[in-house]
Amino acid sequence: MPGAIYAEGLVKTFGDVKALDGVDLDVPEGTVLGLLGPNGAGKTTAVRCLTTLLRPDSGKAVVAGVDVLKHPDAVRRRVGLSGQFAAVDEYLTGRENLQMVGRLYQMRAKAAKERAVELLDQFHLTDAADRTAKTYSGGMRRRLDLAAALVVSPPVMFMDEPTTGLDPRNRQQLWGVIKQLVSGGTTLLLTTQYLEEADHLAHDICVVDQGRVIARGTADELKARTGGERVEVVVHEREHMATAAGVLRGFGKGETTVEEHTRKLTVPVTGGAKLLAEVIRELDGRGIEIDDIGLRRPTLDDVFLSLTGHVAEVKEEESDEAADVKGRKAKKESAK
Ligand SMILES: Nc1ncnc2c1ncn2[C@@H]1O[C@H](COP(=O)(O)OP(=O)(O)OP(=O)(O)O)[C@@H](O)[C@H]1O
Ligand SMILES: [Mg+2]
């Protein structure tokens, strides 16, 4: 049986841009799917197709048990959406915005008022509740928009980059709200560029790039694909980097990555703390001064990089190490 959000072969083209190039999704009821991808990957387009705002060129989508293309109105009644760009009424106050949404969903006036008070409190907007939304900061609008999406709790929710532009405290707080929502049975599709966020919230992750799903699995499964833990060393002297790289290669189970400007070397290993101690002894024995050393699990960043870091474009004759360096460069470019 298909899940609460189901898509098969979704295609959407804008001129010669294939925003979606055959996307399949299946989100079991009561779970969170993290749709992860760089700018322009097709995340918003997927959300818009699934929430009836955009008609795909081809493919099939079923949300909350209803065919999206055949019965868009019925789908709209069953889903909640918080878009990438906050859709609040600038000329209403925060409180009025929330009450209006409640009334649109046929809540009684008193219930809508009470719900607005709860949400204003939950999203730290009580002090600004009676100011018009046009006086709100970007982060406040974002929070008001999210609160509006939560006035009623539909069985299926879509959140397009819900935490972009939120400060760390508000992000943490929203994570809490999302967890609470999902524990109440809501199915959620969330897009994000924050790998940490998908790691934190999503049961399953789909990595999209150029309109295609290029990997899927749990955060742990995706991490396992990039190998086990890594030893990361920052050496004190730049001159020692080559020797240190040689030492790491001796212990490594994969390519050693060298980051010149930070004097950081990374190598995948197996053997845990015991091996770490051996690496330290060996480096010490060779008189290499260390600023920092540690064992770390691969982050989703590593996963993302190894999947989308343009490694696939590297020609046969290039070594994996060159590919890795290239990948890191690409990441830095995109981080600019
Ligand atoms: N209405 C549109 N008209 C033309 N091109 C569009 C339109 N909407 C999206 N695109 C193109 O489709 C591709 C996917 O865009 P989309 O907004 O889905 O990406 P995204 O993954 O949400 O990116 P971001 O992380 O920047 O929000 C991009 O190349 C974009 O330029
Ligand atoms: Mg987007």
Automatic annotation (TrEMBL):
What family is it from?
Belongs to the ABC transporter superfamily. Drug exporter-1 (DrugE1) (TC 3.A.1.105) family.
Q: What's the superkingdom here?
A: Bacteria
Q: Tell me where it mainly resides.
A: membrane
Q: Which GO terms describe its molecular function?
A: ABC-type xenobiotic transporter activity; ATP binding; ATP hydrolysis activity
Q: Which GO terms describe its biological process?
A: daunorubicin transport; doxorubicin transport; response to antibiotic
Keywords in UniProt for this one?
Antibiotic resistance, ATP-binding, Cell membrane, Membrane, Nucleotide-binding, Translocase, Transport
From the Swiss-Prot or TrEMBL record, give the protein name. Answer: ABC-type xenobiotic transporter
The scientific name of the source species is Streptomyces fagopyri
Membrane disposition: Peripheral membrane protein
Kindly list the places in or outside the cell where this protein is found, as annotated in its UniProt entry. Cell membrane
Disordered, as annotated region: 315-336
